[in-house]
Amino acid sequence: MRRCLRLSGQLLGTLGVVVLGFAAYLYWGTAMRATAAQQVFTSELASQWSSTSQLAAITGVTDVPPGKPFALLRIPQLGQRWQFAVVQGIEPAQLALAPGHLPGSALPGQVGNFVVAGHRITAGNPFWSLGTLRPGAMITVVTITASYVYRVTSRPRSVPEHDLAALAPVPYHPGESARLRMITLMTSDPPWTGDSSIVVTGVLVRALPRQQGG
Fold this sequence. Notes:
The protein has one domain: Sortase (Sortase, Chain: A), CATH 2.40.260.10. Helices cover 30% and strands 28% of the residues. The protein is built from four helices and nine strands. α3 links the parallel β2 (83-88) and β3 (100-101). The longest helix is centred in the N-terminal third of the chain and has 50 residues, at 2-51. The radius of gyration is 20 Å and the shape is globular. The termini are far apart.
């Protein structure tokens, strides 16, 4: 009996170490990988934007391949150095490295709803503090052509995982025709299970030439 208890204790101890190790990898290991990817994405965007012809710059963001970066997302309320490159797509492989743009939703600055999803935990925890944003907070999206500044218009909402109303061209009003230029940011809630989503919406208040907007 004592031997069984001792073996059980050793197994539980080993299991605890494995669980803690896995949790540490999810928090720090994936963050290191995402940080490295973000550095590559940012350098890639800087190279593209500095070498792009004037005609291509006027054309702006049109058709972005899955997994490729096309914008920088900045939210000063989350930190003066808070910045993430945004890639096209919201598949697991894409969100493991960066916040991702929902294909089919509007692009930055367009009429409609520019939808961006990101992890709350893992992948550098980009949207860990998304739920702290309040009306009036500013969100800047920098692309090859412009810096688009959105103002948060409502408090964060917690919506069921499969509720897609927030992704409509007019958030929470499916079927309505869009007239405004909106942004929606979303992440899992609670952090580990993702049974629901935290959703933040905003409206475009100004657009600046990229050289002026940063």
